[in-house]
Amino acid sequence: GKAVPELEVPQVLSDLIDAQAAYLKLFPEDKEQAPVFAYLAAKTNFDYGHWAEASVQFQEIYDLYCKSDIIALYSWQNMTFMAGQQGNEAESERLAVLQQDRQCAPSTIPPEELAAAQDLIAKVGTDALAVIEGIEAKKIMETYAKAEETGDPALYEEAAGGLLKLYQKNPKSEEADGILWNAALSYEKCGKPLSALGVAEKLVSEHPESPFMGDALFKLAYNAFNSFEYEKSLQNFKLIAGEARFKDSPHRAAAV
Questions:
Q1: Do 196 and 185 meet the contact criterion of CB atoms below 8 Å apart?
Q2: Rounded to the nearest 5 degrees, what angle is found at the Cα of 166, between the Cα atoms of 104 and 149?
Q3: How does 17-52 read in b/e, with b if 16+ C-beta sit within 10 Å?
Q4: Residue 214's closest CA among 200, 196, 195?
Q5: Checking phi first, is residue 228 left (phi over 0); if not, alpha (psi -120 to 50) or beta?
Q6: What is the pLDDT of residue 254?
Q7: In percent, how much of the chain has pLDDT > 70?
């Protein structure tokens, strides 16, 4: 992760924070100023690189004002930023799951602040979900890589299911066709050829421009031939043999 230099907090800021803390001790019933003063103290530590202290303070603010003040969400954003900058994946995941579970947002919002608050609430929700899905995707790809390394059929089966789940969440992503093809290969390598063919058919129907199209068509044609579905097999072989985009396919010669 990125190292953040710790800078000395200017005395004037330090004195201000001390004065605000003293005020809150004298007037603890002042609920309007309390979150603002607490956030200023945390943000000062954040701005000057004292992230260990800032993390503790932001967490306290988040916990205390989860359902009563929008400042809880700003605190969550700062904690998430620090975790990302430090490469702390476990902390990023903890914070994302925490917000997904607690759904922190103020129960009442002044009309003049409603639009901005709704935008912030939506952004925090989107960011939390993106972190969770990103970490989940990484774990699935790690399982696939481990299966490739070990050849373990159980890992291939687990990877195939995970890859399909990943695909279903975003079937229009740039990596979608590759995810499907790896799922098909995984099913094949764990001894589930029918599942592999089902995924290959999905690839052909949903991603006809995919660079994996030739491989998928050949797999379908070969299986159809072995299943005595000669017409279906011939159709797929003809596509590989006849279309210019498959001229460099390793399956071209077998299809001609």
A1: yes
A2: 120
A3: beebeeeeeeeeeeeeebbebbbebbbbbbebebbe
A4: 200
A5: left
A6: 47
A7: 86
Residue 244: pLDDT over 70: no
Cβ atoms of 103 and 22 within 8 Å: the answer is no
What are the structure tokens assigned to 100, written together?
Answer: 């997904």
The pTM of this model reads: 0.71
Using DSSP, state whether 127 is helix, strand or coil. Answer: helix
**φ, ψ at 60 (rounded to 5°):** -65, -40
pLDDT tens string 108-117: 999 999 999 9
Contacts of 210 (CB under 8 A, 6+ apart): 177, 181, 203, 216
CB 104 within 8 A of CB 97: no
Are the C-beta atoms of residues 229 and 243 closer than 8 Å to each other?
A: no
Q: Give the Cα separation of 81 and 65 in Å (integer).
A: 19
Of 154, 183, 156, nearest to 167 by C-alpha is 183
Q: Are 5 and 49 in contact (CB under 8 A)?
A: yes
| Residue whose entry in the numeric block shows the structure tokens 């009442």 | 108
Contact between residue 92 and residue 79 where contact means Cβ atoms under 8 Å apart? no
In the numeric block, the tokens 């914070």 are attached to 95
User: Residues 6 or more apart from 185 whose CB is under 8 A from it?
Assistant: 196
pLDDT at 56 over 50: yes
CB-based contact 65:58 (threshold 8 Å): no
Place of tokens 């066709």: 177
For 205-238, what is each residue's pLDDT tens digit?
A: 899 888 887 788 777 776 766 655 656 666 655 5
